[in-house]
Amino acid sequence: MEWSRVLIERFLTGVDGLDRILCGGFLRGSAYILQGPPGAGKTILANQFCFSHVRTGGRALYMSLLAENHDRMMAYMASMAFYDPSAVPDALQYVSGYGTLEREGLPGLLKLMQHEVKRHRATAVVLDGVFVAQSNVSEGEFRRFVHELQGVANFAETTLLMLTHQSRPEGSPEHTMVDGWIELCDEVKAFRSYRTLQVKKHRGSNMLRGKHPFRITDGGLAVFPRIETTLEERPSKGSSAQAISTGVEELDRLTYGGWPEASATLLLGPTGAGKTTLGLQFIGQATPEEPALMLGFYETPDRLETKAQAVGFDLQKLCKAGALEIMWRPPSENLVDELAWELVERVRARNVKRVFVDGVVALRDNLIFAERLPYILNALNSYLRGVGASVLYTSEIRDLHSPDFLPTDEVSVIVDNLLLLSYLRHDRALRRTLSILKLRDSDFDPRAREFHIKKQGIVFGPDPALGDLGAEVG
């Protein structure tokens, strides 16, 4: 017998990030277990799915086995942005199965489920509180019940979500028999708590494996797939042979025209060396036709505006003209994947050509697992390169003076261009210097150069107020 390829219809979950993790959403006619401790967000996600489903023309049934009053749950859901009172009870019906389960057991509950699915013509069904159905029956009875539930979903071509807060072994019958298994977790590391979602099983479909962070917001669950898991096997196009101005005339000369277009540049240097100033000059070249975007953590927008004015740039004017957008976030308690996706989406939406991320250290310090940083930056570089954007990162190092060993960590290896800012002590004064360590596929002047910061920005050469050190150092 020859089998032709059949594409099973998918239903969007109502959560963009989860749809991406599931590679398109829930499969029609499949049964899923949604597991997590109390307060993890199961009920919110299930309701979010139901309201999303009816908005696209489907019909949903929400059956609860909990003693909690439906009115109370609806009062909570009404505060969510996805809630639509006009959908209830026509397209979305809420039914209690608690009394039927108490009186008639699992056979009665199954009959009720079959009846309500048929009566309501439901294409999406939620069974909330599966652990209640399991509490007073044998393992064999519960296994048969799950098997029959799956049969109901398959026969009616409806997608079934079964919600439970019980943490069961991976070999439990409900996990082996259902088509999909999603786990929500509320985790703690040191003093920080965070939420993760993991798809442990998705029969008949690919998926993004591992844990992915999420938030519970006024709009429901917001899931952010780990950005490094979403890259395709085919790499994005490389940096262009054309150059983009750095915003500093002498630096353009040292790089023979600027940095390659659609490349990633890392600017290393100690505090006060001029990293942010150089970044401001880079994005200061933006126009409404080729806009820029800045992501910052330590300098507030007001302080950035003051700093930019000191070197001849009016950030407020650039923003009003549509040439610049500033994303500022406090440097703590951020989800780095959330920031990364927001950055990519804004760059794509506005066709941004210059991106300035001021503070790789802030990204690293916000990660639950810091070792992810190079993989995240590599993914960011790939997405930004794919839309023709050039990105400049800054990262602080401890050494005030040129280090004995040039930095070659995991982050510096994945960027196209690498610059080092440092200090030299001369005549009881510290002098700023810039060295180009790497400029991918391009020629450059490798000699360290002295520079200082004036009203016109970064100026190369000796500072007359400090005496002549010479334009060339070392």
Q: If you had to describe this structure to a student in words, what would you say it looks like?
A:
This protein is an alpha/beta fold and about 475 residues long. The chain has 15 helices and 23 strands. Strands 14, 15, 16, 17, 18, 19, 20, 21, 22 and 23 form a ten-stranded mixed sheet that branches. A hairpin with a 2-residue loop joins strand 8 and strand 9. Helix 12 runs parallel beside helix 14 (about 375-385). The chain is elongated and about 95 Å long. The chain starts with 9 loop residues before the first strand and ends with a strand.
Number of helices: 15
| Beta-strand percentage range | 25-35%
Distance between the termini: 77 Å
Low-confidence stretches: none
Averaged pLDDT, please? 89
The rough form would be described as: elongated
Structural class: alpha/beta
